[in-house]
Amino acid sequence: MSKREVKLVKKINGLLKQLNCREYLHHFGPKKYKLIQHLFALLMMQVCRLSFRRVSNLLMMLGFIIPTYSALCKSRKRIPLFLWNSALKLTAGIRHKRVAIDSTGFSKTNPSFHYIKRVNRKIPTRSYIKQSTLFDIEKKKIIDIRIRSKPRHDCKDAEYLIKRNHFEELFGDSSYDAEFIHELCFELGIKTIIKPRKNVKRGFYRKKQNKNYSEEKYHQRSLIESGQGGEKRRYGGFIFAKDIRAIRAEAHCKAIAYNLRLS
């Protein structure tokens, strides 16, 4: 292995050891593979854009003790969501000041242009996986995400993400200009720099928070779009998983790999 590959392996193993969770994923059954070995293989699967079978064979050839491809497929669904959230927050750091919120979509399929031409598809498929993201503008890291299997309005996940994290300023586009978001941020001591919607002036908390808005500060929000684009370019803008638990695991693996700058 090259020096760069060895460094990446040490970085992933160091992250997983800081989680301070139990050594094995299950309480019963044979204790053959540790939780670190499962998570390491799943992260490398997203970094190298490999299937379960290929990532298992590749890491075994390099001398790593890795579960079989069938065991990896099952363990991806069994790993609890709080463990993925803890790992993501650990890679993003503790203190956050300026945070942007936005949503993006991941395709459920990844067809080639040749296939699209052969089937005469003219209208693209609108079904996609929606990911709402909190992004640290200063550190250029993903703080938290929430996954939905079907498209919904951006405001639906804003309250969930804001309550789970601590920061000082929130940047957002006009889709997040809702009275309940301004009220929630005001109660938590968060300044909102959200672009006002046209012809919408009502709202006690909206008027209070709009005093913090400036066009110069608002343009920093575009950094979250650069971060989401970088994540898709590195690890793919599609998700192959079908079950919602596997979809969340795959999306968190992409976000964790992006924070660790694994490429």
Summarize the structure.
By secondary structure, the chain is an alpha/beta fold. It has 12 helices and 5 strands.
The residue-averaged pLDDT reads 87
Low-confidence stretches: none
Helix percentage: 40-55%
Rg over CA atoms, rounded to whole Å, is 20 Å
Principal-axis shape equals globular
> Number of helical segments?
12
Please explain how this structure is put together:
This protein has twelve helices and five strands. The relative contact order is 0.14. A five-stranded mixed beta sheet has the order 3-2-1-4-5, sandwiched between helices. Helix 8 links the parallel strand 4 and strand 5 (191-194). The mean pLDDT is 87. The longest helix is centred in the first third of the chain and has 16 residues, at 3-18. 47% of the residues lie in helices and 13% in strands. It starts with a helix and ends with a helix. With 263 residues, the chain is of the alpha/beta class. The protein has helices at 3-18, 35-48, 52-61, 69-78, 81-92, 113-118, 158-163, 179-187, 204-209, 215-218, 222-235, 244-259; strands at 98-107, 128-136, 141-148, 169-172, 191-194. It folds into two domains: 3-78, no CATH class; 90-235, Nucleotidyltransferase, domain 5, CATH 3.30.420. The radius of gyration is 20 Å and the shape is globular.
What descriptors fit this protein?
Nucleotidyltransferase, domain 5; 12 helices; 263 residues
Detail the topology: elements first, then pairings.
Layout: H1 3-18, H2 35-48, H3 52-61, H4 69-78, H5 81-92, E1 98-107, H6 113-118, E2 128-136, E3 141-148, H7 158-163, E4 169-172, H8 179-187, E5 191-194, H9 204-209, H10 215-218, H11 222-235, H12 244-259
Parallel strand pairs: 1-4, 4-5
Antiparallel strand pairs: 1-2, 2-3
Helix pairs in contact: 1-2, 2-3, 2-12, 3-4, 5-12, 11-12
